[in-house]
Design goal:
By secondary structure, this protein is an alpha+beta fold. It has helices at about 5-10, 25-40, 45-50, 70-80, 150-165, and strands spanning about 50-55, 65, 100-110, 110-120, 125-135, 140-150. The model is unreliable at about 1-25 and about 85-100 (pLDDT under 50).
Length: about 170
Protein backbone atom coordinates (compact mmCIF):
# COMPACT_ATOMS: atom_id res chain seq x y z
CA UNK A 1 0.00 0.00 0.00
CA UNK A 2 1.45 3.38 -0.93
CA UNK A 3 2.00 5.97 1.78
CA UNK A 4 -0.68 8.18 0.23
CA UNK A 5 -3.32 5.44 0.24
CA UNK A 6 -2.26 4.36 3.74
CA UNK A 7 -2.73 7.93 5.02
CA UNK A 8 -6.19 8.14 3.46
CA UNK A 9 -7.19 4.80 4.96
CA UNK A 10 -6.16 5.94 8.42
CA UNK A 11 -7.95 9.26 7.94
CA UNK A 12 -11.20 7.49 7.05
CA UNK A 13 -11.02 5.71 10.39
CA UNK A 14 -11.71 9.09 12.00
CA UNK A 15 -9.64 11.86 13.52
CA UNK A 16 -7.25 10.57 16.13
CA UNK A 17 -7.98 6.93 15.35
CA UNK A 18 -5.05 4.63 15.90
CA UNK A 19 -4.10 1.67 13.76
CA UNK A 20 -5.72 -1.54 15.00
CA UNK A 21 -4.16 -2.87 18.17
CA UNK A 22 -3.46 0.59 19.61
CA UNK A 23 -7.00 1.05 20.91
CA UNK A 24 -8.99 4.24 21.14
CA UNK A 25 -8.06 7.80 20.40
CA UNK A 26 -5.01 7.99 22.66
CA UNK A 27 -3.51 10.87 20.70
CA UNK A 28 -6.57 13.02 21.44
CA UNK A 29 -6.11 12.48 25.18
CA UNK A 30 -2.37 13.18 24.93
CA UNK A 31 -2.99 16.47 23.11
CA UNK A 32 -5.62 17.49 25.66
CA UNK A 33 -3.03 16.83 28.39
CA UNK A 34 -0.29 18.66 26.46
CA UNK A 35 -2.52 21.72 26.05
CA UNK A 36 -3.39 21.58 29.76
CA UNK A 37 0.37 21.55 30.46
CA UNK A 38 0.89 24.57 28.19
CA UNK A 39 -1.81 26.40 30.19
CA UNK A 40 -0.12 25.34 33.46
CA UNK A 41 -3.05 23.10 34.41
CA UNK A 42 -1.55 19.57 34.26
CA UNK A 43 -0.88 17.93 37.62
CA UNK A 44 2.47 16.17 37.38
CA UNK A 45 3.43 18.29 34.38
CA UNK A 46 5.80 16.86 31.83
CA UNK A 47 6.81 13.96 34.05
CA UNK A 48 3.35 12.47 33.67
CA UNK A 49 3.24 13.15 29.93
CA UNK A 50 6.67 12.16 28.59
CA UNK A 51 7.88 8.61 28.06
CA UNK A 52 11.27 7.84 29.67
CA UNK A 53 12.75 7.26 26.18
CA UNK A 54 11.17 10.29 24.47
CA UNK A 55 13.13 11.84 21.59
CA UNK A 56 13.08 15.62 21.10
CA UNK A 57 13.93 17.21 17.75
CA UNK A 58 14.81 20.85 18.26
CA UNK A 59 14.74 23.51 15.57
CA UNK A 60 18.06 24.80 16.95
CA UNK A 61 20.09 21.63 17.59
CA UNK A 62 21.09 19.21 14.81
CA UNK A 63 21.10 15.99 16.84
CA UNK A 64 17.99 14.45 18.40
CA UNK A 65 17.85 14.84 22.17
CA UNK A 66 17.02 11.53 23.87
CA UNK A 67 15.40 10.98 27.25
CA UNK A 68 12.88 12.56 29.56
CA UNK A 69 15.35 14.83 31.42
CA UNK A 70 16.79 16.61 28.35
CA UNK A 71 13.38 16.80 26.64
CA UNK A 72 11.91 18.35 29.78
CA UNK A 73 14.75 20.90 29.82
CA UNK A 74 14.13 21.88 26.19
CA UNK A 75 10.35 22.07 26.59
CA UNK A 76 10.67 24.18 29.76
CA UNK A 77 13.08 26.51 27.94
CA UNK A 78 10.63 26.74 25.04
CA UNK A 79 7.77 27.55 27.41
CA UNK A 80 9.80 30.49 28.71
CA UNK A 81 11.07 31.52 25.26
CA UNK A 82 7.58 31.45 23.74
CA UNK A 83 5.68 33.40 26.38
CA UNK A 84 1.98 33.08 26.02
CA UNK A 85 -1.26 34.61 26.99
CA UNK A 86 -2.91 31.77 25.04
CA UNK A 87 -5.42 34.19 23.59
CA UNK A 88 -8.09 31.76 22.43
CA UNK A 89 -10.38 34.62 21.38
CA UNK A 90 -8.06 36.04 18.71
CA UNK A 91 -9.27 35.70 15.14
CA UNK A 92 -7.68 32.80 13.23
CA UNK A 93 -4.85 34.03 11.02
CA UNK A 94 -4.51 37.33 12.87
CA UNK A 95 -0.97 38.27 13.78
CA UNK A 96 -0.63 37.63 17.52
CA UNK A 97 0.29 40.48 19.81
CA UNK A 98 3.65 40.40 21.54
CA UNK A 99 3.86 37.46 23.91
CA UNK A 100 0.69 35.76 22.73
CA UNK A 101 1.38 32.11 21.88
CA UNK A 102 -1.50 30.15 20.47
CA UNK A 103 -2.20 26.99 18.54
CA UNK A 104 -4.06 27.77 15.32
CA UNK A 105 -4.56 24.31 13.78
CA UNK A 106 -4.59 20.73 15.01
CA UNK A 107 -4.39 17.63 12.83
CA UNK A 108 -4.69 14.19 14.43
CA UNK A 109 -3.94 10.93 12.62
CA UNK A 110 -3.00 7.57 14.08
CA UNK A 111 -0.49 8.08 16.88
CA UNK A 112 0.53 11.55 15.68
CA UNK A 113 -0.63 15.13 16.12
CA UNK A 114 0.52 18.20 14.25
CA UNK A 115 -0.21 21.45 16.06
CA UNK A 116 0.46 24.69 14.20
CA UNK A 117 1.31 27.67 16.40
CA UNK A 118 2.07 31.34 16.08
CA UNK A 119 3.31 34.10 18.32
CA UNK A 120 5.30 37.31 18.23
CA UNK A 121 8.65 37.58 20.02
CA UNK A 122 10.50 40.88 20.18
CA UNK A 123 8.27 42.21 17.41
CA UNK A 124 9.03 39.27 15.09
CA UNK A 125 6.30 36.95 13.83
CA UNK A 126 6.98 33.27 14.62
CA UNK A 127 5.06 30.44 12.97
CA UNK A 128 5.72 26.76 13.47
CA UNK A 129 4.48 23.28 14.20
CA UNK A 130 4.81 20.81 17.04
CA UNK A 131 4.70 17.24 15.76
CA UNK A 132 3.90 14.90 18.64
CA UNK A 133 3.81 11.09 18.60
CA UNK A 134 2.57 8.96 21.45
CA UNK A 135 2.66 5.31 22.45
CA UNK A 136 -0.44 3.23 23.26
CA UNK A 137 0.07 4.01 26.97
CA UNK A 138 -0.55 7.73 26.31
CA UNK A 139 3.01 8.94 26.76
CA UNK A 140 4.79 11.23 24.31
CA UNK A 141 7.58 9.30 22.57
CA UNK A 142 8.58 11.93 20.00
CA UNK A 143 8.34 15.71 20.01
CA UNK A 144 9.51 17.63 16.94
CA UNK A 145 9.45 21.42 16.58
CA UNK A 146 9.76 23.28 13.28
CA UNK A 147 9.79 27.08 13.00
CA UNK A 148 9.62 29.67 10.22
CA UNK A 149 10.50 32.27 8.88
CA UNK A 150 14.31 32.45 8.97
CA UNK A 151 14.34 35.58 11.16
CA UNK A 152 12.22 33.70 13.69
CA UNK A 153 14.57 30.70 13.64
CA UNK A 154 17.54 32.98 14.33
CA UNK A 155 15.70 34.81 17.13
CA UNK A 156 14.49 31.59 18.75
CA UNK A 157 17.99 30.11 18.46
CA UNK A 158 19.48 33.04 20.40
CA UNK A 159 16.76 33.06 23.03
CA UNK A 160 16.70 29.28 23.51
CA UNK A 161 20.49 29.16 23.86
CA UNK A 162 20.35 31.83 26.55
CA UNK A 163 17.43 30.11 28.32
CA UNK A 164 19.12 26.70 28.23
CA UNK A 165 22.25 28.23 29.69
CA UNK A 166 20.20 29.79 32.51
CA UNK A 167 18.45 26.47 33.12
CA UNK A 168 21.80 24.72 33.49
CA UNK A 169 22.26 22.97 30.15
CA UNK A 170 25.66 22.84 28.49
CA UNK A 171 24.12 22.25 25.03
Amino acid sequence: MSHERHSRARHRAGPGALPSGHGGAVIEQVIEQWQAHVRGELPGGLDALLDDDVVFYSPIVFTPQRGKAITTLYLEAATQTFPGDHDEHAAPGATPSSGSFRYTKTVLAGDTAVLEFETTIDGKYVNGVDIIRCNPEGRIIEFRVMIRPLQAVELVHRQMAAMLERLGSSD
